[in-house]
Amino acid sequence: MKVFVTGATGFIGSAVAAAFARAGHETYGLFRTPGTDRPLEIAEVVPVQGTMEEPDGWRLAAERCSVLVHCAVEYSDRSWDLHRGALGALRDAGRDRSGRVLLSTSGVWVYGDTGDGAIDESAPLDPPTFVAPRPAVDAAVLSWNGGGFRTIVIRPGCVYGRSGSLTASWFESAEKGGAARVVGDGTNRWAMVHRDDLADLYVRTAESGLGGEVLNATDRSRATVNECAAAASSAAGAEGRVERIPVEQAVASMGPFATCLALDQHVDSWKAVRRLGWTPRHAGFVDAAPQLYAAWKASRGSAV
What we know:
By secondary structure, the protein is of the alpha/beta class. The strands form 3 sheets. It has a 7-stranded parallel β-sheet, with helices on both faces. A two-stranded parallel ribbon has the order 7-9. A two-stranded parallel ribbon has the order 8-11. β2, α2 and β3 form a beta-alpha-beta unit. The radius of gyration is 19 Å and the shape is globular.
């Protein structure tokens, strides 16, 4: 297959593009900043320079591909408009051509606080303010399914590994401030997934015949945020110390994003396991914290 991946130099997109290339697919990766394409070439991904603001610059490359994967993220006031625009361009590149598939990246935060009881893809959505527009975007993607054009929404948990993404802040605060910093009391649990396991799910989904589906992507770990942060703190030489920031204080400095960090979630991914044979190979953050810390340190200053 020919595969086009937006955000191919980002935290999730780089892993996804590399996984498709390793699986033997001819893979094209959209990158934004000149000079950041070398990691794509190393991963045997063909670089395509462009931005979400100007989809006409990469539309032809996307039209040549049968698999369209949206992983790009823009952190700004216009992020949702750009997100919708990029997805619309991918839709236009694929839906009038039989045998095309669009995979759109969402996230489990749309379920809100789930507590201890496990929920699956059928659960009602209760998104916090930071991701409030996402359910409508996901619904639009699913509505495009049909006529030989398959669309799937993938909802990852908090993704860890390599440069760390959200978990990087635990290592950084432990290394610089002597304690891993968390939002809230830390008794909540994050639904999590390693970036390589997540990338494997994208490949399996594209190679399947699924369409019009939502797939959660989480591992089986159930450690609390306190336990994860303490493991990160120990790995970073801070002797397991954890600093807890009240949610209200975190919101004042970080905005509504902070409330997502305090969510307590137990999100089930058995649908992907049953229908695609997907089995996360990484057991969880806590046991791997020393290796994850080493990967985080090694990744700093790299292009991806």
